[in-house]
């Protein structure tokens, strides 16, 4: 499936938080980032469904699930992106220290380069983030690193089993040709 087809599919799925919303940076199903910011009833993400999913309409790529800090919010405002002021017309509650929110991947990379990047959740950060930031860097900022390691260990165990099965099959095929 082409990347634009995936984006279109994700655009079509914006309505509910129970549908598949894409994959995270670990390659598994994307987890919810925050579906109810400070009890406001507002979910994060471009689609406000709680997921950092993305699609063709999301030009900013709101794909990084972060926990904001005062230092990050001040930095963001200093570079022209005020995330603290509520904007009801965009269903945006305004953020405070400790809030969890889907941040634009380029904004996170910009903050990283300035030494102001907030910590993040790998399981809730969309795979499109990897177009802007390498996984190795994201892992340094992960709040869910222990869970992410467990996911990676399980995937590696599954890969090992598949490799063993594949090797046995190749051996059997080679024996049958001799």
Describe this structure in words.
It is a single chain. Helix content is about 40%, strand content about 5%. With about 180 residues, it is mainly alpha-helical. It has a 3-stranded antiparallel beta sheet with strand order 2-1-3. The radius of gyration is 19 Å and the shape is elongated. The model is unreliable at about 1-20 (pLDDT under 50).
Gross morphology is elongated
> Secondary-structure element order, as H and E?
HEHEHEHH
- Give the % helix: 25-40%
Work out the strand percent: 5-15%
The largest beta-sheet arranges its strands as: 2-1-3
The tally of helices reads 5
Q: How many strands?
A: 3
Distance between the amino and carboxyl termini: 39 Å
Please give the radius of gyration in angstroms. 19 Å
Helix/sheet category: mainly alpha
Largest sheet: 3 strands, antiparallel
The low-pLDDT segments are 1-18
The overall pLDDT, averaged over residues, is: 87
Q: How would you summarize what this structure contains?
A:
The protein has helices at 3-12, 70-78, 105-113, 135-140, 145-177, and strands spanning 62-67, 100-104, 119-120. By secondary structure, the chain is mostly helical.
What topology does this entry show?
Elements: H1 3-12, E1 62-67, H2 70-78, E2 100-104, H3 105-113, E3 119-120, H4 135-140, H5 145-177
For this entry, give a set of tags:
disordered N terminus, 38% helix, elongated, 178 residues, three-stranded antiparallel β-sheet, mainly alpha, single chain
